[in-house]
Amino acid sequence: MSKLDYCFSNDYMVLRPDRAGPVELLHLLFSPKVGRNRAVDCFTSTEVRSFACRLAIFLNLLLQVLLLSLSGPLAALRAAVELVLNLVDNVLHGRMECPDRSSPTYRSVMGLIDRRVDLDRSIKPTDSRFDSAHCVMASKLAYENEKFIRDVVTSHWQLGRRADRNGRTVEHADGVRAFLQLLERVPERVHGAGLRVLRQGGGGSGAGGGGVPRDEAVRRGGVVRRPGPVVVQDPPPRPRARRLHTHALGAQRNIGWPKWVEHIKGKPQKVYAYYTIRDTVKELLEANTKARLLVTGHGSGGALAVLFAAILAYHKEKAVLDRLAGVYTFGQPRVGDAMFAMFLERNLDRPRKRHFRITYGDDALPRLPNESSAAHFLHLGLGLHFDKSYKLKVLREIPGEEASSSVLDAVTSRVSSAWELGRGVYLGYQRAYFREGWLLMMMRVLAVALPGLPFHRVQDYVNAMVLGGYIPKDN
Fold it and tell me: What is the pTM (predicted TM-score) of this model?
């Protein structure tokens, strides 16, 4: 076990499924000396005398071992399904070619569900929805491959172009440089999270003058879909966040978040998401004195976006925080406990709100971890909840937290899914921008047939930002 830094924590336990074998699993059942188990990172003197507690640790570790063994086959299955869907999509659009994962036409499943890549030009910089509408498109784009992102940002979003005083479109190199720097430097570990660097007072671009910001940066990344170590600990007198997300962002084992990471000579230099993003953003902000920063993400990417801002505050990165215009998350799960919420509010939401947590309908992910779980994780920031008619309510908690399996709920779920299906057809008929693709329509039909089937889609968040009206900036 690596040496513990006492100023980080004096009460911790991390399960290591990658080290667990038959001997380690049996040792958990029959020996209270958990600290001597290779599959458990904790103080060597740690003992757990309660058999019920050791059994809970044993089952947790066994489940992690099972998930770890399935991570490879599941990843291969996901890649195969994505490839087949892209092949079908090519055929439906008249392209008789085999999909290439690295090509600018290859889409993720999320990109096939919602094919929109253009920004809504009707939302002007003075609109309260301007930041959130651009952020949701950035977080959606973050699921795609590098060439796809480059093509969308340069061709569709026209990053690097602006209108001069005579109305002519001219090249603006700073925006392109900012985007390329983030795209090339940031490690691929933060799925669904994005960054945007916007110049103050971003004007229109191209003939349409749609209010596209002059400088913007979007970075793809990804939560590693293999199970990470599980933390089992008593509530310590420090803020707590989910290790799944802190580990993906680059937390250092046993020492947490040092301001700088020292590299060991003679060993390959490791690249950590938070530190690379932070240093690159600082360079971009220094080079663009009028720029402002927006951090965004969908699903787990939203959780990572919140943690990124929290660590900036923990490190007292005042130069970056002063330029942080907002953190917009879409379908974000619960990230931290009450102390973490207090820390974030004190450092991010004063004197004005900068964390906006946007949820939609019956999206299941924002309801995790469950309120009844032992972790006691809470929702953070200003909660903006859109119902299935895209009507906005400002709420602390999401309605309908209590899950049940009654017959009435099954009927209600089926009616609600049918409503969404009909609404999608109607909106697509009214305006081409809301027209839904073949995969999403198939999923909506499937949701009617299988009531209660959860879908965590970015499509409805894009619609909500366009149709939802005014976005409040405070309670």
Answer: 0.78
